[in-house]
Amino acid sequence: MQFSENWLRSLVDTDLDSQALSHALTMAGLEVEEMQPVAAAFSKVVVAKILSAEKHPDADRLQVCKVDVGLAEPLQIVCGAANARAGLMAPCAMVGAELPGISIKQAKVRGVESFGMMCSSKELGISAEATGLLELDNDAVVGQDIREYLDLNDHLFTLKLTPNRSDCLSLTGIARDVAAITGAPTRFNAIVPVVAEHANSKNVQVNESVVCPRYCGRLITGVNTAATTPAWMVKRLERSGLRSISVVVDITNYVLLELGQPMHAFDAAKLHGDISVRFANAGESIALLNDQTIELKADDLVIADSNGALALAGVMGGKPSSVDDATTDIFLESAFFTPAVIAGKARRLGFSTDSSYRFERGVDFGNTRNALEYATALIKTLCGGQVGPVTEVMSALPARDAVKLRMSRLISVLGISLTQEKVAQLLTQLGFEFSSAAEVFTVVPPSYRFDINIEEDLIEEVARLHGYDHIPALAPVASLNMLAAPEQRLHLNQLRDSLVSVGYQEVVTYSFVDESWERDLIGNPAPIKLKNPIASNLSVMRTSLWGGLLDVLTYNLNRKQERAYLFEIGAVYQQQAGAYQETTRVSGLAYGSAKPEQWAASNTEIDFFDVKAHVDSLIGADGLHKQVTYEKAEHCALHPGQSAKVMLNGKAIGWLGKLHPKWQQHYDLAKSTYVFELDVDAIVARALPAYQEVSKLLPVRRDLAIVLDETVAVQAVLSAIKAENIALIADVALFDLYQGKGVPENKKSLALSVLMHDTQKTLTDSDADTAIANLLQLLQIKFDAVLRN
């Protein structure tokens, strides 16, 4: 919102200077984005009249002028402007004047003395280009300071308004806020209804009263639309960023800027029948004022006559019914449209208008008729004409529900002590109607404040008028008590440390992923789709972290990083029985050599068992009662011969395996890629530590080789031994597997190390033999295993 400071000061009488006014507005929530002078600084430039202009004796394009600047004698000035002529009123910079980039001195021009310089708007810094002297009105006072005459001691303010402050999209709204901030009195123009001079009118039918609850219009005949817009109005329009078009359009724009009410004038001779406010019909189109013809949609509200749409309501008028220099009769409208029906319409069409910008944020519906009366008075004054009666159609206007403000809540939120009398004063300055009882204010927002709906809105109003800079910045006070650290749960940082210790690097990827990842890589045919994705390739929620890790791997390989150990701890999202479920998982990816390149070790690639060791270390980080096993299973993303479900205490908690060859080819991976993914909640849970006596005596180790069917899983053997809890046997581990010569076909040989000890005595050979015999008996019964010869 751009406006002239002088225009604002004509509506509110404040003693603040420009800088102080800018600061006050910003601190009250109306941020002044820019403040710049209308013209550059200059001095000793006055209104002058050229008395005579004679050709220079030695130059064809120069004239020697006698110029009246209000002194006792005229000045002689040599001028090269093409429009310099006797009788012209123009600015004159006298000797000693300082213009932007120019110092005026007495000089000789081609042998003729010159005592000043006649000025163009460019030389005064008012415009970037000029074709001649700046021509002034004949009624200008000779000798008057040009800055005063042209009102150049002015500033252009540009406010960066938040969308909720639609009331400040007008000079009246800004003046109202300045008055509330500073306590200065307002000087609003009194709006007096114009008396009708004839009985002619247009019938108006509002078919959509919900979205257009108030519509006013009147017929004005005998209007001189070719009249010149007065300079004061042109100046205010231009300093607000609008160009002068024609007197009637300028008046509607002027009312828009001063009161915030968009208006439109139709050429009454181009209207057919009654006026109606309705939604567009199927296949209907309209030619707009910007020369754009659009096909209307069913939700487009239009102003229409019997022949069709005349204007796109709240956005832009139609060209066929527009006012031009030949217009003599106009139908002037002022209406209120609900923000919801206007919002987004202009943006959909690829442009924005001052009207739509205001209507979609909320216009003062209590001022609709006043704006019509104000515009009518201006038209009658500047263009003449005879005024008809106002046609007004009104239904249920938006309700202004009372909002309660509790003093206790106000003090609690702001953290400062305010008296009830002070709050009442601030609400009064805002022009709010209210009542109070038992330290509770009941406030009825005015029709121009669409942003006052809840208690917090009123708290904000009190805070900004009291002054944010008057609210002390207190250091926060908080207790720094140590938080309880639950012993039965690992911290996520412990999982991170476990993976970092074996060379992994943590990455963070989007929770939004490409739908093809879910459908093809993860085998999820119905992922959770986003209603408004930020990109077409981020359209669904992930159910696995693998897609993101593979994407990061590809990114690194493209940058010549040939070894990548990556992990991520993040959320995945699933939909079950119509409800959304979020769980946290830790996922890892390993690619390239098993160890960083070095002279002391061969450059062997990582394999399945290397990654399995990483998973074992991750799950068993605490070493307390976690039974980790792996079951052969197939996953669409994994190699069918190298994939397994990870089991923890008999429950599936994730996957481990080698990437399927088709995905290795899809991602153009030259080497094997191994991935794992585990449920975090399962692996961070742990049992409380329990004391167990450590033997002070030496253990006894026996190595056994047993032969059994090759289909028997080693893990099943180890689990059975542990479950039996054979006396004296502390641990059993596999250290070799053999198939070949000396072992029957379809059989395999397992070499087991058996560790035995007793905390009370040294074991004898007889004790060890008994334990081994019990172990072999168990293996023979459960797995038909025999001791290898």
TrEMBL record:
One GO molecular-function entry: ATP binding
Gene Ontology, cellular component aspect: phenylalanine-tRNA ligase complex
Reactions listed under catalytic activity: tRNA(Phe) + L-phenylalanine + ATP = L-phenylalanyl-tRNA(Phe) + AMP + diphosphate + H(+)
Gene source species: Methylotenera mobilis (strain JLW8 / ATCC BAA-1282 / DSM 17540)
Keyword Transmembrane helix included in the entry's annotation: no
Gene3D superfamilies linked to this entry: 3.30.56.10, Bira Bifunctional Protein, Domain 2, Ferrodoxin-fold anticodon-binding domain, Nucleic acid-binding proteins, Phenylalanyl-trna Synthetase, Chain B, domain 3
GO biological process: phenylalanyl-tRNA aminoacylation
Annotated TRNA-binding domain residues: 39-147
Enzyme class: ligase
Subunit structure as annotated in this protein's UniProt entry: Tetramer of two alpha and two beta subunits.
Pfam families for the chain: B3_4, B5, FDX-ACB, tRNA_bind, tRNA_synthFbeta
Protein name, UniProt field: Phenylalanine--tRNA ligase beta subunit
SUPFAM superfamilies associated with the record: Anticodon-binding domain of PheRS (SSF54991), Class II aaRS and biotin synthetases (SSF55681), Nucleic acid-binding proteins (SSF50249), PheT/TilS domain (SSF56037), Putative DNA-binding domain (SSF46955)
Phylogenetic lineage: Bacteria, Pseudomonadati, Pseudomonadota, Betaproteobacteria, Nitrosomonadales
Record's keyword terms, sorted: Aminoacyl-tRNA synthetase, ATP-binding, Cytoplasm, Ligase, Magnesium, Metal-binding, Nucleotide-binding, Protein biosynthesis, RNA-binding, tRNA-binding
Transmembrane segments: none
This protein's encoding gene: pheT
InterPro entries from the UniProt entry: aa-tRNA-synth_II/BPL/LPL, B3/B4_tRNA-bd, DNA-bd_dom_put_sf, Fdx_antiC-bd, Fdx_antiC-bd_sf, NA-bd_OB-fold, Phe-tRNA-ligase_IIc_bsu, Phe-tRNA-ligase_IIc_bsu_bact
FDX-ACB domain location: 695-788
Enzyme Commission designation: 6.1.1.20
Recorded family membership: Belongs to the phenylalanyl-tRNA synthetase beta subunit family. Type 1 subfamily.
HAMAP family cross-referenced by the UniProt entry: Phe_tRNA_synth_beta1 (MF_00283)
Subcellular localization(s) per the UniProt record: Cytoplasm
Cofactor(s) listed: Mg(2+)
Residues binding Mg(2+), per UniProt: D451, D457, E460, E461
Domain B5, first and last residues per copy: 398-473
